[in-house]
Amino acid sequence: MPGALSHLRVLDLSRVLAGPWAGQILADLGAEVIKVERPGSGDDTRHWGPPYIKDGAGNDSREAAYFQCANRNKQSLTLDFTQPEGQRLVRELAAQCDVLLENFKVGGLAAYGLDYASLKAVNPRLIYCSITGFGQDGPYARRAGYDFMIQGLGGMMSLTGKPDGEEGGGPMKTGVALTDLLTGLYAAIGVQAALAHRDKTGEGQYVDVALLDVQVACLANQAMNYLATGVAPRRMGNAHPNIVPYQDFPSADGNFILAVGNDGQFRKFCEVAGLPALADDPRFSSNKARVDHRAELIPLLRQATVFKSTAEWVTLLEAAGVPCGPINDLAQVFADPQVQARGLRLDLPNSLGSSTPQVASPLRLSASPVEYRNAPPLLGEHSDDVLQRLLGLDQQQIAALRSAGVV
Fold first, then answer.
1. Distance between terminal CA atoms of the chain?
2. Which of 143, 227, 260, 360 is the most interior residue, by most CB within 10 Å?
3. 3-class DSSP string for 365-387
């Protein structure tokens, strides 16, 4: 069946992660996504290795694993739009596209006549999405913004990591570039909202998405905790600011997560742990009391959890209806039976005589399922096809563009 967005064409001028992530979401849903890359070098992440994808003999190829994570289901077109002829080609392509994604600095594409105002004149129905560090206005608008620095500036690192007074305490970024990924998600949502608006009005529009805006918006309950009290939340390691006990605990062979969400679950946990009196202790009988007396409760629980293995705790607590789970490394994640049952690892045959591992889209659509194709391994491998099919250029014209370094 055709994908849900198979009627759409996207011109993706973005690179690295936030923009390509948005483009991959749209591509997974069926949109034709044409990734425009720099001749000779391409997206920076093509070179962000090791690790690299293995060929059929088990040797490293030149395909960086990083590039593969955000560029599947796309076509690669190389164009140098610093040249007038390249600019003309981008404008002609934009005239035939529904969406354009870009993550250049504010005003960076205006010098080439590829800004929203210029392309709107060519295609009034175009959805033009700009992804930047700080947005199109404000005192920081022209600064470069990267995930790591935005996690610091936007408050995430003030909440992530152990308290300063503990061993290993201090601010910590997340283990993946979460702000980039969330920004890609918001960009894809914004694009689809703009497309829905266009369906009703016939009008295209400009979508302005900023990493800092997304990071602040995604502080969620922690932001509301601050706004409601005026007190800035502190780093609490793996503990929860509003629910107790809701954190990691030591087991006989490692650690596990206990996620008690209400008083009934706390009572059940205490029964399983052989601590029934704690559920009736006025210091711990309600969640509010447990939050107030966190420092007294947690050591008592930690003293009890070390006598059983993680697997034992998970078995016992699941049977009692108390949310819990292990802390897996990635080898354990992809060996997990639920992850396998949901098909979250894919292995797509490639031109190297091997297969490219992929993490599947989490979207499950019953009538228009996601389909998968590898990220384009060859820089510009679809250039001829795109230029012929969409712009009607013949081989002689394409050869001339290639000779001039435009393609």
1. 34
2. 260
3. CCCCCCCCCCCCCCCCCCHHHHH
In a domain, 159, yes or no: yes
Point out the domain boundary residue: 299, 329, 359. 329
Do 28 and 134 share a structural domain? yes
pLDDT of residue 138: 97
Residue 353: is its pLDDT beyond 90? no
The C-alpha atoms of residue 296 and residue 268 are separated, in whole angstroms, by 19
387 lies in the same domain as 323: no
Q: What is the pLDDT of residue 2?
A: 87
Lookup: tokens for 80:
């140098």
In this prediction, residues 201-207 reach a mean pLDDT of 98
Residues 258 and 351 in one domain: no
Q: Is the pLDDT of residue 267 over 90?
A: yes
Give the catalytic positions in this structure: 180
* Contact by Cβ (8 Å): 14, 23: yes
User: What one-letter code names the amino acid at 407?
Assistant: V
| Rounded Cα distance, 19 and 346, in Å | 23
Cβ neighbors of 160 (< 8 A, separation 6 or more) are 151, 171, 172, 173, 174, 235
| Residue 253 and residue 359 in one domain | no
User: Residue 229 falls within a domain, yes or no?
Assistant: no
Which of 273, 295, 329 terminates a domain? The answer is 329
Cα 226 to Cα 64: distance, rounded to the nearest angstrom: 41
Structural domain contains residue 171: yes
Residues 299 and 389 in one domain: no
For 143-199, the pLDDT digits (tens) are: 999 999 999 999 999 999 999 988 899 999 999 999 999 999 999 999 999 999 999
Task: Encode pLDDT of 29-64 as tens digits.
Answer: 999 999 999 999 999 999 999 999 998 899 998 889
Collapsing DSSP states into helix, strand and coil, what is residue 129?
strand
Choose the weakest-confidence range: 99-103, 253-257, 278-282, 373-377.
Answer: 373-377
Mean pLDDT, range 72-85, rounded to an integer: 97
Q: For residue 366, is it within any domain?
A: yes
**Residues 42 and 78 sit within 8 Å (Cβ to Cβ):** yes
- H helices of 74-230, in order, are 84-94, 116-122, 147-153, 156-159, 178-201, 211-217, 220-229
Quickly state the pLDDT bin for 245 (edges 50, 70, 90).
very high
Domain assignment of residue 322, given as a range: 246-329
> For the chain, what is the domain count?
2
- Show the tokens assigned to 39: 């001749």
